[in-house]
Batch of 2 targets.
Target 1
Amino acid sequence: MVKRHSDIAEREAQTPGRSRLELEFDRPALLGALFGQFDQNLITLENRLGVYIAARGNKVAVEGEPSGIARARDVLTDLYARLERGMAVDSGDVEAAITMTADASTEGLAVEAGGPPAMIRTRRKTIMARTATQAQYIQQLGRSDVIFALGPAGTGKTYLAVAQAVSQLVAGSVDRLILSRPAVEAGERLGFLPGDMKEKVDPYLRPLYDALYDMLPSEQVERRIASGEIEIAPIAFMRGRTLAHAFVILDEAQNTTPLQMKMFLTRFGEGSRMVICGDPNQVDLPDPSKSGLADAVARLDGIQGIAVQRFTSKDVVRHPIVGKIVDAYEGPNA
């Protein structure tokens, strides 16, 4: 049987107890990047999916169980499509593509095959979804007024929100980008930190700066901060304001109180979008049961225009071992 996916030809064959699939690629110049240095990407696929892969010229043969072959085919065609669009492929992209195929086969969450990829374009890079949940989240970022993103660190909650905010700021669909965070971390108090107010709070806001510099050239970040187009401030600085035509992100929202969360949410103005990111299991307040994030989700979930996107350890994209660490800390012995 021969099928056609873009410029990749497929041939399937059955042998007793084993299946075999042959893929033929029309652009051999892309195959070095597809296979990885010393074929490392193919080796990763073999180890993770339990298949055997042999490459010769512009053809790749995959042998193994039908489910493993199908996932290897989907990963290779997805990565090849990235290369056709002029994007790079690294080991993280390979792991992400493998995870996406698992989500598609077991949870039905992935973007429909053949449909447009879930991505966000910024000045410095194009960010693509690395898990099916991230794909859903990217879609929510483009259409919902208020989005609560809940889940462990490393799942891309804040990073993708900043990417979407920068994309809309550059496109002109919002006038300002406002990034905020409660200055509460593991019981530390600002008064004991040296320096003026900016020097006191900047360490708490560093992850937001890092995400910005990933999306925009550094001179643009500095210029837009100086002009007020980009504002990074603790949540206390939001009181009394109306944030119109702005993309507003609240990070580490689990460390707000219910009153702080109510104050923040009611800053919402015309033409704005809000994203509230946090991990309900990492509350640093003196009384973790008084988290404004959990309170807000319980009150607002289900209201039209408000979306709640939940991430799990399966969506951790920093390194596979981070997801295992999250599971260990949230398991029955936690």
Target 2
Amino acid sequence: MKIRSLTVFQIPVVLRKPVRHASHERSDNETFLVRCELSDGAVGWGEGLPRTYVTGDSTASSWRHFEAARFSELRDAPWNSPDEAFRVIHSWHLSEVLPDPGISVRECFGNPVRCAVELSILDAVCRSASVSVSDVISRMPEFGTVTEQSEVVYYSGAVTSMSPRKQLLSALKMRLFGFRQVKVKVGTEGVDDQGIMRRVRRIVGPRVDLRIDANEAWKPEEVADRMRPLLRYQPTSLEQPVAHSEVAQLSEVRHHLGVPVMLDESLCCLEDGERAIQSQWCDLFNIRLSKCGGLYRSAQLAVLAKAHGLGYQLGCQVGETGILSAAGRQFACSIGGIRYLEGSFDRFLVREALTKEDLTFRYGGRAPRLKGPGLGMTVNESTIRKIQVREMPLIRP
């Protein structure tokens, strides 16, 4: 089983509505899709979204990674099963490239590229073997402490930074849609944190699990004061309250909050997780496939968290297409113990679908296991080729 061709496409993704939080406001984004074709004709797809303020990756630096990477190592690598292919892809290393000016990088630099390449090859290999990606994850011994097959998973809703009227409308949608869990974005300039929490809790009721995401908005010395008036609304976690550059101060701050702390922008790779555990920075990991470098590295983070008594959620990035939605579903249906689950917002958020299947969650956030081979979705390749900004062959046939 060999890779016949590998191609990357840069794709503009337009959102149905702007999404605003303390770190950014976004109405569109650029994503990278990778197409892998094997020698037997099987085709797979992967996706990665660069975020400069998360992993240090921009559209420009990601393209430099694609240009510099030694894809011949993947083309020539032998594998006889999807399990072996998964490990080979994980052991492949990107060539070093310079980040954009002013960007300080850490070990997660290049993770969106890793994710897109990994998913495309794994999707193709699993299609060739007529197995799903979740089946492969579930049988790999290195993930044995966290694997658990699920036929149905439940996604959570989100109330982002917006006007009081839109907060009420958004909270009402959360209630009418029957979500069990809702994330509330706080810390945005001009938005009253107490007001948004009060409105959301009043609308969704006392039984819904509310959690808070500050997106690096607060200074370490003010986190406790910021959280104190919000505790009456019974949040179950506080996500990334401080900037990554100040994350070390959470080792002291978190003991005075009365709510578990989750890392997101500061949790992008195994090294981040190990530092956080050693220095006691958090109680939970927010694992997101693109920022964490794909399925294998994300599963490693779940294993690490469980081994040290921490919780974890599977998050998503704004603007993910159906390819990453499908990959997230495969992960969620094969990894147990996920505290919160985000993603599959497809038709609610992305204007133009790139998959033939509608992967959007249903009432209550309910979403079934994807039964097909590979990632379990079918890509509209003609749409991708129509809207792509540029493409580049990584491995030529």
